[in-house]
Design goal:
2 copies of one chain form a homodimer.
Chain A (H helix, E strand, L loop, with lengths): L5 H10 L3 H14 L2 H12 L2 E2 H8 L3 H13 L3 E6 L2 E6 L3 H13 L2
Antiparallel strand pairs in A: 1-3, 2-3
Chain A binds a DNA duplex (30 and 30 nucleotides) through helix 5.
Chain lengths: ~110, ~110
DNA sequence: GTATCATATGAACAAATAATCATATGATAA
DNA sequence: TTATCATATGATTATTTGTTCATATGATAC
């Protein structure tokens, strides 16, 4: 007979957030799950930056950076402001820092 | 003339961790960036669980869960212990909770 | 208006990834 | 040892994802 764990399953399931929330959560983390985007976020720790500066920093095309910034914007991790032709990107809030800091703590052990 | 930002780039670059660290960091976050794995981790918040219980909880095959647990193990987010035929998985440390909590804070705004 | 700089975006393609299937390993009980 | 339960793993496949290329938009200067 296979072993039973219906009681445990019920307890655990009752604490589990709904699927939509968990999907949002994993989507958020997957935004952090790319080297290019992590580098962009880390750069913005120091200062707001325009797209072409980020591209130059990471030695990547403007297009690639722009595509990634779009994802970061949609995840509400960065915001932008226009100044003439230039668009400056900056961190949306402090969660970015704390999430990345927690991640750094984990890998530095 | 294109606009210049060599000074900024130098400053930002000097604060940037090395590529290897940033790669590790993004790999860590990409482990959180999947619904199945987030569900597994959330389940383990409540209690250690054996593989077949997790599979039953998430209504997925044992194989799929086992593959994901492997990734979680390699990221050092979970550990396991054997008890007879059964293998119990549990959270490796408290970073898992704090990272997920920070993520939850961000999406619930 | 035209030219140019800065950025955004759609399509296409290559690489990475998550689930499935079949099978292997490892432990226990008979 | 044979049968069974619990888990792991390799190969395959469908889907997702990141970059590139070409082009579009939007602002400024002339």
């Amino acid at each position: 007979m296979k072993h039973d764990h219906t009681k445990l399953l019920h307890d655990v399931d009752s604490q589990m957030p709904d699927d939509e929330t968990l999907a949002e959560l994993s989507e958020l983390f997957s935004v952090f799950g790319d080297t290019t985007r992590i580098k962009i976020l880390w750069a913005l720790f120091e200062s707001e930056m325009c797209v072409c500066a980020i591209a130059e920093l990471l030695k990547m095309t403007q297009s690639a950076i722009s595509h990634q910034l779009k994802l970061l914007r949609h995840a509400k991790l960065v915001n932008s402001r226009r100044e003439g032709k230039t668009i400056y990107y900056f961190l949306a809030d402090d969660h970015v820092r704390s999430i990345i800091n927690q991640g750094m703590e984990h890998i530095s052990e």
